[in-house]
Design brief:
alpha+beta, single chain, DUF2283 domain-containing protein, DUF2283
Amino acid sequence: MEIKYLEDIDILNIELERGEFEYSKEVAEGVIVDIGKEGEILGIEIIDAKRRLKEDPENKIAKKYATGIRV
């Protein structure tokens, strides 16, 4: 899994798995799911992520996934 925030276009891209892309489907306004050839969900894109998440997506992700990590 890979999570990327593209700040210049305000899109949060969550890649769940790699596979051969077949099509995309908008499942809610501004939420797009990428579907693979075998019908698996490859990824999720959230358009206008800052507005939808009500916080900077990078900060929100860091808070959630950096908890408990020691450097």
